[in-house]
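I can't quite decide. Please look over this sequence plus structure tokens:

:::
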Amino acid sequence: MTHTDDQNMETELNREALARLRCLVSGEATIADVEEVKRWRHLSPAHERAFAAANRLWDRLGPAGRSVLEREAARPTPRRRSGSARTLTRRAVLGGAVAATAAYLVVRPPADIWPSLSELAADYRTAKGEQQRIILGDGSLMQLNTQTSVSLQAPAGNHDRIELVSGEAAITTGHKLERPLIVIAGEGRISAQGASFNVRFDGRTACITCIEGGVDLQYGANQLTLSPGQQVTYGERGLGRAAAIDPRMVMAWRDGLLVFHSTPLAEVIVEINRYRPGRIVLMNGQLGRQTVNARFRIHNVDEILTLAQRAFGARITPFPGGIVLLS
């Protein structure tokens, strides 16, 4: 049997395990369903591993991720045996034959897999892996990175205004603008005229990088001006200090690249998940602390899986819908 055959078999086992788990937690499972899952798990060590992996995945994704995964990997649930059709309550299932599963079935916050209402209502929005160039009415150029939502606001006073609802945008304003361009990101207000800068906002923390010219930032009662090569963050922990960075690394996404220098694997995975369909789920904290020095093409970010496997001995467990467990 070839390596590809082994992977295909493992993927199919994982798909079957997930279907059985969905049946058990549906609230409609019968005694026959429970017995069928027990029988299936004991067919081989590989079946047992697949079911354990499905439990871990179900726990990590949270309710939003589970819903998306079900839509992506919809398959008929295991056929019920004839006989007792008595439906078990969820409490009976978790307290009975599959009580070991209960520790995994904890409600978690949504995994940010689908967009919020404010993102859907934005004037411009990019999907995962998509980028878009937009010329604003004042001649400014705005390039949107993956999963970015921008809303245009009515001019206020002597300013044109846009709001970065979420995501990342590179903006270049002309030197001949009659009035500065204002960008709202969370609680911050960025003002620029004749400048180039990058703004990233994940709904909690914003990161502003000045590439050319000068960028003014107002955050609460605090104000500062960024010079080329400077970056600042703000959010739940307040306003940070301006720091010197390499703008080429920040702007590499515009050239279709992701560049990492001594970056923990856990952070690399978070970044790569912004670009690929599905989700890579890191299951090993020690593995996540391994540092990565590499660059990846945005259209082929799954190279990180090969690197993690070869460099760190990571185990890759694929699931339908682009879900991958990394342990």
Notes: The chain has three domains: 3-103, 117-250, 256-326. Residues 3-103 form one domain. Residues 75-111 have pLDDT under 50 and may be disordered.
